[in-house]
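Let us work through a complete example step by step.
Step 1: write down the sequence.
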Amino acid sequence: MAISKIDSDGIVSGGITADSLNIGQIGGRRNLIINGAMQVAQRGTSWTGLTTIGYRLDRFEFYLGSFGTWTATQSTDVPTGSGFANSFKIECTTANASLASGNVGIIRQPIEGQNLQQLAKGTASAKNITVSFWVKSNKTGTYIFELYDGDNTRQVSASYSVSSSNTWEKKEITIDGDTTGAFDNDNVASLYVQWWLGAGSSFTSGTLNTSWASNVDANRVVGQVNLADTVGNTFQITGVQLEVGSVATPFEHRSYGEELAACQRYFEKFTGLLQYSKARESDRLRYLNFFYKQVKRAAPDITLSGTADGTTFANFADNSLDGFRGQCVAVGDTATPFFTSATFNSEL
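Step 2: predict the structure and record it as tokens.
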């Protein structure tokens, strides 16, 4: 970054230029990705036998469609001197060397439409987007990064190379703004940010689409290697940043507390003892008011663990964005139902 100078005649030179900064993000958060440093792992830090879709590290979904079997971990293997402490690592434990036409493997993060309005998508002022990330894999070759617009069924792909086996490499990709199809201004998934790991012919048989266009599956993942072709293949990612503009700025490190709070909008885990209180003894009614740590994206799916005298927790009255009123009928006259852990899922 150039520093301004004032010469003896009072003339300013060497000032900061628009090309050196993503101007639209000054004074606000630059990174549209949540948990890009892979800090938050409310669901756990290790999973085995993975064959289907599911969120693993917070806000990162591992999408598998007949793409072999995998383990996933929150790894401490990171780029040296990068300032990161964790990465998201996957490893193939059962291979699929011959993918059927519809087979897919993806790591992705969906983003709410109301968090994307600054992109001005669908207007003449549509902004460019730049993604930057660190990647490491033992399998070299061509990989595909994709932005998929679920509101308007549009997409754009970009290829990047893993050049050296088992070596951390930083990638930066800029996607031109899309003047067609505005994102809905709501709390539903509008944009899917996707790192492909492999795909069958349904997604690879055309010509790679490198400019925004109506979706044609055959043009989405052309040239992509098949990470599932050999047991032991690995893929790791960290330092993920998606920002407005054509420049990849330094990663926006946020505190663990900030990232945790942002993640809890979509998923929250509770561990502790909470007992239902007696409301009416005549019909054994018990109740509990519970408030979430963060306001949720939508009324969440609730899973409670713990019971007393066979009582279950089937009725969640007034389940809302900020909490619920639990209500149940105890099995015994003296029963005091309780739960010791809970999850509240409001993922996209």
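Step 3: interpret the result. DSSP finds one helix and 22 strands in the chain.
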